[in-house]
Amino acid sequence: MSHLTAEQMQLRESAGAVADRYYADKALEWDAAATHLPDEERRRLGELGYLGIAIGEQWGGSGGSLMDALVVVEEVAKRCSLPAFQIFEANTGPARVVELYGTEEQRARYLPEIVAGQATMAISISEPNAGSAATDMLTRGKVDGDTIVINGQKRWCSGAGAAEYYLVYLRLSDERGAAGIGAVIVPKDAPGLTFGPREQLMGFRGVPSADMFFDNVRVPASDVVVPAGGFSRLFGAFSIERLGNATMSLSLAQAALDRTAAYVQERQQFGRDIVEFQAVQTQLADMVMQVEAARLLIWRAAMSANPLPDVGQVSVAKCFANEMAKRVTATAMELHGGYGYHREYHVERYMRDAAGWAIAGGTPAIQRTRIASEYLGRRFGQRR
């Protein structure tokens, strides 16, 4: 932990203690129930200051660094994913876009609520035919006097139906491709906004996901955070969220490693602790190396933030951490044998969630394209 300051080490220790006290024993229960984090727990996170670690003091936050926030996300997520998801969203998600690019009025109106745990803001980008090809989105906002009228459909919104506010990426002009895309804040109770049935996902249980339908939804034009033509700024800010994503992957792998290290020293076969077998030692060592490498890549990218992190470093960190988490949790499953397949041992949950984080926020395939682009200083079009 030589890259952490004394204050960050203390923050890390206190976050782990808080998560042990309030959340570690809830992980299996909340996963089985697939319910979103109770509102009182979200408010508790606000009272603890965890929802405003990287948000400016003038809006109720601590004014800390991105690194500070990621340290807390990892420690809480190792114990329980649901409260960590709230910390991740508040410190690395759409609230940061509002802080970076929103008006003073928008910051003053939305950020204090989020920091206090009184509200959540989710991000809405994907559509039925616009996932990795985000610039294919069709959801449209038309100016009508001092309002924006929104029509279209969004998909795969994490928090859909539960969050109070949504940062919706949409077309705000007739220009094609990225040039017409901007972002606007839409409240959950906006007339004309409806939600589809909750998706039944392999993992991410407790993080609701659903389609969003916009039928002449009107919002004030003053809630446009980024106007048409600001797509590059939006996806620059999205690099912060990708580091949060990578840290969630890291936490799953570290938790799987911790449980596996304990298990192989307790489980006996052929009259010996199974850790005495060299094959087990080799697999465990590979897990350690992969987890440590991912953490260093994430921290390198986080420390480059000023205020945005280096895009190429973020893509390297996310791609590596996402794929690492899938490998490490699979190895944990193998070393646990039949017990790894049992929900009470947590490992199968880690595997399910690891698969989800590799899809969310830009797949490893997309990150590889970005890595090559940044490394070579070239832009590659995927269209004909």
Automatic annotation (TrEMBL):
The signal peptide, as residue positions, is none
The Acyl-CoA oxidase/dehydrogenase middle domain extends over 122-217
Residues of the Acyl-CoA dehydrogenase/oxidase N-terminal domain = 5-117
**Alphabetically ordered keywords of this record:** FAD, Flavoprotein, Oxidoreductase
A GO MF label: flavin adenine dinucleotide binding
Stored InterPro entries? Acyl-CoA_DH_CS, Acyl-CoA_Oxase/DH_mid-dom, Acyl-CoA_Oxase/DH_mid-dom_sf, AcylCo_DH-like_C, AcylCo_DH/oxidase_C, AcylCoA_DH/ox_N, AcylCoA_DH/ox_N_sf, AcylCoA_DH/oxidase_NM_dom_sf
Gene3D superfamilies named among the record's database cross-references: Acyl-CoA dehydrogenase/oxidase, N-terminal domain, Butyryl-CoA Dehydrogenase, subunit A, domain 2, Butyryl-CoA Dehydrogenase, subunit A, domain 3
Pfam (any one)? Acyl-CoA_dh_1
Keyword Flavoprotein found:
yes
Cofactor field: FAD
Every copy of the Acyl-CoA dehydrogenase/oxidase C-terminal domain together lies at 229-374
Give the highest taxon in the source lineage: Bacteria
Q: Which biological process terms from the Gene Ontology are attached to this UniProt entry? A: butyrate catabolic process; fatty acid beta-oxidation using acyl-CoA dehydrogenase
Q: Which family does it belong to?
A: Belongs to the acyl-CoA dehydrogenase family.
Name assigned to this protein: Butyryl-CoA dehydrogenase
Please name the source species: Prauserella flavalba
The upper taxonomy is: Bacteria, Bacillati, Actinomycetota, Actinomycetes, Pseudonocardiales
